[in-house]
Write a structure and sequence with these properties.
Elements lengths: L3 H17 L1 H4 L5 H23 L3 H23 L8 H6 L9 E7 L4 E3 L2 E13 L2 E4 L3 E6 L16 E6 L15 H6 L5 E5 L5 E5 L5 H19 L4 H12 L7 H9 L10 H17 L4 H19 L3 H19 L5 H15 L7 H23 L2 H6 L14 H20 L2 H34 L1 H8 L1 E3 L2 H26 L3 H26 L5 E3 L5 H18 L6 H21 L11 E5 L8 E4 L5 E4 L19 H12 L4 E6 L5 H4 L2 H7 L1 E7 L6 H12 L3 E4 L5 E4 L2 E7 L18 E6 L2 E5 L5 H10 L2 H4 L3 E3 L11 H7 L3 E4 L12 H9 L3 E4 H4 L2 E5 L4 E5 L4 H7 L17
Parallel strand pairs: 5-7, 13-14, 14-15, 15-16, 20-21, 21-22, 22-23
Antiparallel strand pairs: 1-3, 1-6, 2-3, 3-4, 3-5, 6-8, 9-10, 11-12, 11-24, 12-13, 17-18, 18-19, 19-20, 24-25
């Protein structure tokens, strides 16, 4: 078997996939069953050894791989066992503590305080929490953020390893319960953060015991000093300093958001993530330096391994860095003991080590992307280059030496002969010195062209090979990736060693560091300018829905077939390569184009009230599949200009993923009810991610945020229309009537108000929805006074202003007579929405109620006669109240999902 490690890694990964399958992972593995499974694996391995001794190698391989599958399944189930009983989230779930009030939390600082734009973050490994005059031992992670209110309120003077006590109200990280939404809690939990909190005063964080001088604490303090040194040597270049903090030390806290997006658009965001590229560039620099110093192979290997270990310790032991370092160690050790390295086997060995240590990594997107990129290089790019460009690249070395021709293939040897012939002819025509320099320069240029061609092939293979996972996880297709990588990767190879040389110099001499900082700043500015320029090329980057699972599996099946064909030397292998490559490119085109129709119920009107926290976002889908998106949520906090580490953006993290999960690439109408941040904030992401045909606005408002949104819409080719009271729209058989705001000729409101909300009613057959935005009692009275009562009656009412006590007044409810009320509000929001008075009114009126903070996204479907209702968190009792029989989820939708 030429690739034994690959076969073993694939078998072990297959077993893990079985163990992580939802039906298996939900069950705890009993000790007895575990012993049986392990005994079975041992017996299979013993039987494989017996077959191998009898020269039945293929049978032995099959039995051995079966044992690895069993071991993988056991490892996955074991790693998926429940957390201990004193784990903080288990304590919260059991109701032993109340997170609605400030508590005293005790623990140990995991790292040095992390600087943020305008504040600091403290990551604490919890040891106990005080609740109701008793201390409860616990485990878990708490992230506390603090922003001083002035010079009189300084930062707490604490360091890594210190034992601290902090009085604060901790919360579970915000979670949007919508199909396809970004799971922020799982993302933070992978970083060891289970709860988050905001510190009101520095006095509330107290040092209870100082740390010891352990190696871990010393490295953390070193990382902090390096971050401070980087800011000191680039005091007047915040953009360059922020990019270098990310590239060298893995700290993206100070990245400008627009720059971060530009790196994503161009497909070079990986240069900002300390991972394989950076470790590889660092190792390559060390290898070049060792060659210049004429070190032996053993000393070169040992020096590189030692320096990479130090590098990983300095930049922090994050999983991508550890994976890249382990891959480097495997390759270096293989080179030390063998003449030829089979890179694909080395990749498989590294993957196997990580999966044995943590089987759940198989489901981690970062792990998948890391090893997929290595697979693309080792299994696709390098074999292709070995057959095409690489022989000519090697042939350019010592091309004047005739004696080396026999060591090259015939076509390369002929190329060298032609090079010498042309050179001799040219040198005979031109004076000696000039001719020699010209031919040498031409040869160097040809060698450079070959190297550039190799890099182009590598970037193309990586862009195509990683397309399915990038489309699945990030919903982005980047056509400019090969060009941007051709520009950014060589610069990164210079910036990483130069950056660390500058940091090393800063520890000894500020003057020497300043000298090195000048070219470092210029090269970083060049990188930023180049990326920004490429990012602004129109239509070179766009967002798409995730491809279906069958297409992803089909693509990777073709990629594996093509990889095998590249290693096959049979007579028909050329046609197999061409056929598999053609199919592979066709599958890649299908992923990039996404020619699939969105999922919707033909002949039915659908309303989805999305969970966007404390905000509003609703999706209407007409009987013919046309869409109206009403608002997109948004944070109440004004977005910071700088800081890649940020709070959630509902438009990007919730609304867009939900639309992509349905297969939508464009939206017919976006309706902004009014220009408050909790309705408007997420719409910027919507216009960036989707083609929007029309924007509906209500009354003209002198709001900078609304004007910016209008300008963005116009720049994207969207038509802007103002809809006011009295307007009517026939929408695929569904009637839309606008009830508010009142027509006020040539009047522009000075600020956005809840009572200026766009209010409209949508009816289909005998059923109707009333959608009032944030309208409160003032506008409700006006609507009641100027409307026919029959025109207001609606089966479904989206409660105004998130359930404020000033909305949905008794008179308004009596006129509408809804059968179901839906409230869009954030869990534990600071405004107390929905108000107890409102909930009491709904209960007294006998109106069934659903809330997004409890049920997540609420989906309502009607054929004009009956309703079907389902929620992200199951709500079957509501459907029973609306219809005589229990409804079923519509076609192509998942019913009653529960997370």
């Amino acid at each position: 078997m030429r690739l034994p490690a690959v076969a073993i890694a694939c078998a072990f990964a297959s077993g893990i996939a079985i163990g992580l399958w939802p039906g298996v992972a939900q069950h705890e593995l009993s000790p007895a069953l575990l012993r049986v499974a392990l005994l079975s694996a041992i017996l299979l391995i013993t039987f494989a050894a017996f077959l191998s001794a009898r020269d039945r190698l293929y049978s032995a391989a099959i039995v051995s791989l079966s044992a690895w599958i069993v071991l993988g399944a056991c490892g996955a189930v074991v790693s998926n066992q429940p957390k201990p009983t004193n784990y903080i989230l288990n304590i919260v779930d059991r109701g032993e503590i109340d997170l609605h009030t400030p508590l005293r939390w005790r623990g140990v600082l995991r790292d040095e305080p992390a600087a943020l734009p305008g504040g600091t973050a403290y990551d604490i490994n919890l040891t106990s929490v005080d609740f109701e005059e008793r201390s409860i031992p616990t485990k878990g992670g708490l992230r506390v953020s603090y922003s001083p209110h002035g010079p009189a309120d300084p930062f707490p003077d604490v360091h890594v390893g210190d034992r601290v006590a902090v009085v604060t109200q901790a919360r579970l990280p915000q979670l949007f319960r919508d199909e396809g939404a970004f799971d922020r809690r799982a993302y933070l939990r992978a970083q060891g953060v289970d709860l988050t909190a905001t510190l009101r005063s520095a006095k509330l964080l107290q040092l209870t015991a100082a740390s010891n001088n352990s190696p871990h604490n010393a490295l953390a303090r070193l990382r902090r000093r390096l971050r401070e040194s980087l800011a000191a040597v680039l005091p007047n270049s915040p953009d360059e300093a922020a990019v270098l903090r990310a590239m060298l030390l893995g700290d993206r806290s100070f990245l400008d958001r627009s720059e971060s997006v530009n790196f994503q658009k161009t497909g070079v965001f990986h240069v900002l993530v300390v991972a394989g590229l950076h470790v590889g560039a660092f190792a390559a620099f060390l290898f070049w330096l060792a060659r210049k110093l004429r070190l032996s192979r053993i000393w070169t290997s040992l020096a590189i391994i030692l320096c990479v270990i130090c590098y990983v310790a300095v930049v922090e032991q994050r999983p991508p860095v550890l994976r890249a370092a382990l891959m480097t160690f495997v390759v270096i050790l293989a080179l030390l003991f063998f003449r030829r390295v089979e890179l694909l086997n080395s990749v498989a060995v590294a993957a196997l080590i990580f999966l044995v240590a943590s089987p759940s990594l198989l489901a981690d997107s970062s792990f998948q992307l890391s090893f997929l990129s290595m697979f693309c290089i080792a299994a696709l790019a390098l074999p292709w280059l070995e057959e095409t460009i690489e022989p000519f690249t090697r042939g350019m070395r010592g091309w004047r030496d005739v004696t080396r021709d026999v060591s090259h293939p015939p076509n390369v040897a002929q190329f060298r002969i032609d090079m010498r012939s042309i050179s001799a002819w040219f040198e005979a025509k031109v004076p000696g010195v000039l001719a020699a320099r010209t031919t040498s320069g031409a040869a160097s240029l040809i060698a450079l062209v070959f190297h550039v061609a190799e890099m182009i092939v590598l970037t193309l293979v990586l862009q195509i090979g990683m397309l399915p996972l990038l489309a699945r996880d990030f919903h982005r297709v980047t056509l400019s990736g090969p060009l941007a990588n051709l520009f950014a990767v060589p610069l990164t190879g210079i910036l990483v060693p130069l950056g660390f040389a500058t940091l090393a110099a800063s520890t000894f001499s500020h003057g020497a560091a300043s000298i090195l900082a000048r070219p470092l700043r210029w090269l970083t500015a060049l990188l930023i300018h180049g990326v920004n320029t490429i990012a602004h090329i129109p239509r070179w980057s766009y967002r798409i829905p995730a491809p279906p699972l069958w297409l992803i599996l089909f693509f990777f099946g073709l990629a594996i077939a093509f990889a095998f064909a590249l290693r096959t030397e049979s007579p028909g292998s050329v046609w197999i390569k061409r056929f598999s490559l053609a199919l592979l490119l066709s599958a890649a085109a299908a992923i990039a184009i996404f020619p699939f129709s969105p999922r919707w119920q033909h002949g039915s009107l659908e309303l989805t009230v999305l969970d966007v926290g404390q905000g509003d976002s609703l999706l209407l889908v007409s009987p013919s599949g046309h869409t109206i998106l009403i608002d997109a949520g948004g944070s109440f906090d004004a977005p910071a200009h700088r800081g890649e580490v940020r709070g959630p953006d509902p438009g990007e993290d919730a609304v867009s993923p939900y639309l992509w999960s349905r297969g939508f690439k464009q939206i017919d109408v976006v309706a902004l009810t009014h220009a408050h941040q909790d309705h408007l904030g997420g719409l910027t992401a919507i216009f960036e991610n989707f083609k929007v045909k029309t924007l509906w606005l209500g009354r003209d408002v002198a709001s900078p945020q609304q004007k910016q949104l209008e300008a963005l819409a116009i720049s994207k080719g969207t038509r802007v229309i103002h809809e006011l009271r009295g307007n009517h729209l026939d929408w695929d058989g569904a009637q839309t009537d606008f009830l508010w705001p009142q027509i006020v000729p040539e009047e522009i409101a000075q600020s956005a108000k809840n009572d200026d909300s766009l209010v409209f009613r949508v009816s289909y057959g005998d059923r109707s929805f009333l959608l009032p935005g944030d309208a409160e009692k003032l506008s409700e009275r006006s609507i009641l006074a100027e409307s026919d009562p029959q025109a207001l009656r609606s089966d479904i009412l989206k409660i105004g202003h998130h359930g404020s006590k000033n909305s949905s007044t008794p008179d308004f409810l009596a006129a509408v007579q809804p059968r179901l009320a839906v409230i869009s509000s954030g869990a534990e929001n600071p405004y107390g929405h929905p108000a107890p008075q409102l909930l009491e009114r709904l209960q007294l009126a006998g109106i069934a109620t659903l809330r997004t903070d409890a049920s997540g996204a609420v989906h309502i479907l009607t054929d004009g006669k009956q309703f079907e209702v389902w929620c992200f968190v199951a709500c079957p009792e509501i459907a029973t109240q609306l219809n005589s029989t229990e409804p079923q989820a519509p076609q192509n939708q998942q019913s009653n999902q529960q997370k």
